Amino acid sequence: MQDLKNRVALVTGGSRGIGAAIAIALARAGADVAVNYRRRSDASASVCKTISSFGQKALAVQADVAIAAEVWRMISEVENGLGPVDILVNNAGIARPQALEEVTEKDWDEVLATNLKSVFLVTQAVIAGMRKRRWGRIINISSAAAMTGGLKHPHYAAAKAGMLGLTHSCARLYVRDGITANAIAPALIETEMVTADMRATPEHIPVGHFGSVDDVASVAVLLAMNDYMTGQTVHVNGGWYMT
Questions:
Q1: Along the 243 residues of the chain, how does pLDDT read in single tens digits?
Q2: 3-state helix, strand, coil in the chain (%, to 5)
Q3: Range of 133's domain?
Q4: Is position 156 annotated as part of the catalytic site?
Q5: CA distance 8 to 79
Q6: Strand pairing partners for 183?
Q7: Residue 3 falls within a domain, yes or no?
Q8: How many domains does the chain have?
Q9: CATH code at 124?
Q10: Out of 59, 74, 109, 154, which could bridge 63 as a Cys pair, Cβ 3.0 to 4.6 Å?
């Protein structure tokens, strides 16, 4: 297990929910953290204030991570403000409860862009620096929907499953460069995204209650510290999906 002091983390979609919890947990473990957001500048500022209270550096950086030009600008701002990215948490995502026959081409493209294309773009933007420094952690926040199909999210499930394939590819390609790549697959964590969906109830979960954002954040810290786990998917789902 490695110390995170003097490491720089970037958490996409880090202004709320699981992303905010991970950003704060990484800071508690000693990392300086860049908090990416698309629209909620006030929420990202609040997360940064919490991070700063631990004595760590924090930077809020706005970008739509589904757009390449904005990703490269974001990485430049992070490098100038905090330093090169050592720990990348690809967390940004959207969900649209729709049956397959209700999904338009526009819906499909937007969900795949935000949930999967963004992972490719941001990882591509930081991987060369990680390889040069021979140290890096890529942590992708997937979902139990990748395995189960979810409740009513065919495009979301497809994107989250694609994220696992990309995780495996990065793990195999860069393992000799000192870089690990792992995924976390949560299910029904009590966030704004989950509680807004009336179909998402604790009855789906064998333990009988929603998970907390800290349940996921603690796993992200473990993966950031561990140099022997790579290519793995850690299931944080209260027993909904078992491997």
A1: 568 999 999 999 999 999 999 999 999 999 999 999 999 899 999 999 999 999 999 999 999 999 999 999 999 999 999 999 999 999 999 988 899 999 999 999 999 999 999 999 999 999 999 999 999 999 999 999 999 988 778 999 999 999 999 999 999 999 999 999 999 999 888 766 655 555 666 667 777 787 899 999 999 999 999 999 999 999 998 887 787
A2: 50, 15, 35
A3: 8-236
A4: yes
A5: 9
A6: 140, 233
A7: no
A8: 1
A9: 3.40.50.720
A10: 74
Of the candidates 156, 174, 228, 241, the residue annotated as catalytic is 156
Are 26 and 88 spatial neighbours (Cβ–Cβ below 8 Å)? no
- Residue that has been written with the tokens 């490491």 in this structure: 7
